[in-house]
Amino acid sequence: MSDLKKALLIQTAFIGDVILTTPMIAAFKHFFPDASLTVLVKPEAVALLSENPAVDEVLVIDKKRNHRGPAGMLRMAREIRSRHFDILLSPHQSHRTSLLAMFSRIPERYGYGSAGFARLAYTHRLRRNTQRIEIDRLLDFLADALRVNTAECPRDLKIFVNDSARQEARQLLRDLDVRRPILLGPSSVWPTKRWTAWGFARLANDLIRRYRSPVLLVGAPGDREINDRV
Description:
Layout: E1 6-10, H1 15-20, H2 22-31, E2 36-41, H3 46-49, E3 57-60, H4 69-81, E4 87-90, H5 95-104, E5 108-112, H6 118-121, E6 124-126, H7 134-146, H8 163-176, E7 182-184, H9 197-211, E8 215-217, H10 224-229
Helix pairs in contact: 2-7, 4-5
């Protein structure tokens, strides 16, 4: 892979999945510092990667607007083809992602053999080890695809922000008169993935007692009702 110049990583799952991908992204840049890495994400995940030094470009797929339906997917595939990537890495297993990979016509396409339409979509199909946690599984994906040793790669989850966002956060904490808070995000897109409000309330109280730090609840505007219950 010494001749690798341009790679596309597809991670169009939810925000948490994108964050779990950051060790894989860092490892890619460690092994291939001269290669360009583009990451394809949904609109809500752009801010998570736009300041990441290991990401050269964030490409957006908007399934609800510009890339809705079959015509929108083909439009996205044409945009990908115009960038002339060498390889595609897709740990996302949806049928739609597999079809996008197939229509991208990237010469080398790596995905899980268990993904939808995998035989049509990927030139190289990888085994997905369900016994591993997601961070390790993604590093295994990179190791198997690009023949590198990721055993000693950091597992840190990192989000990079610009100076403006950092100053805005500091000003907010000053306005709230809190220092070194602990943040809790009680909500989730899927109700089945939400812990109880009572559970989060008990956790918040335990954290306050143990660490003598204030607890702040965070979330999107639509999460206010859940946060109020906590």
